[in-house]
Specification:
Length: 97
């Protein structure tokens, strides 16, 4: 499960969490919140979540109005030999997400 998926799942359980709160839950209290911050900004750009300032803190809310809650993961493409190149169809499947 990707960090994007974990964040969406966590916000579905408790909407309106800060990046720090999400980092504490998903990564651990002693970890930096940078990965969560970057991922939340990415999700906001995709309109999956909204980031709002509430009492001086940026909080994350699921964007139900846009109905874009499906967070897609890039497909795993297996290759027998690491030096093999992707076929055109494999590359298209990988890039379309």
């Amino acid at each position: 499960m990707t960090l994007q998926s974990k964040i969406v799942e966590q916000l579905a359980q408790k909407d309106g969490q800060t990046d720090r709160e999400l980092a504490d839950i998903l990564l651990g209290k002693d970890k930096h919140q940078s990965p969560v911050n970057i991922t939340c900004r990415l999700l906001a750009n995709k309109q999956v979540i909204e980031r709002r300032i509430v009492q001086g803190r940026i909080r994350n809310y699921l964007n139900y109005s846009e109905n874009k809650l499906a967070v897609h993961e890039k497909p795993y493409i297996s290759r027998k030999n690491p030096s093999d190149h992707l076929s055109e169809d494999q590359a298209k499947r990988y890039l379309e997400i």
